[in-house]
Amino acid sequence: MEITLDMLLASRDSRQAKQMALMSAHPGHTLVCLTVVMPGAVKRNLHSLIVANAALTAVLECFRQCLVDIEVRDLVTGYEAYLVVDMNPMEAKKLSCQIEDSHPLGRLFDIDILAADGTPLSREQVGDTPRQCLLCEHESRWCMRNHTHTQAELHTRINEMIEDYVR
User: Fold this and answer.
1) pLDDT tens for residues 107-165?
2) Domains defined along the chain, listed by start
3) pTM of the model
4) Are the C-beta atoms of 11 and 45 separated by less than 8 Å?
């Protein structure tokens, strides 16, 4: 099912409200927010669910020892998971970067670590490099801003990554 811009914006607002509610309910803990990188109007399909399951497995494996609470949402606007962990936010961000950089599908994981004020920590704050584009050597943000690649090119690369992983 294709989603509209209004649906996407409403899901972002809902995700932010969920994050604030969880942080309020668990003061002094770190919030790990997991979503799937899936460009285009279709956010939930077989491939996104494969990525979501791989991402959740990797994140649970990493944070299981310090897990306080977990909430998973499978929405038409995409898969979301929220883990409340008893860990320093900077350490959690370092671990999330390792997952994103080392897992075969990690480039399709979006693992945000929220500081106590609700702002996500950046890769740069823990000494890591920005994420690279799926298709070239540029920083992904640069390619997104400049519309360097078509959605068809991105989808082809994503499909290749997932098919390689499944094999």
Assistant:
1) 999 999 998 778 899 999 999 999 999 999 899 999 999 999 999 999 999 999 999 99
2) 5-128 (3.30.70.1150)
3) 0.92
4) no
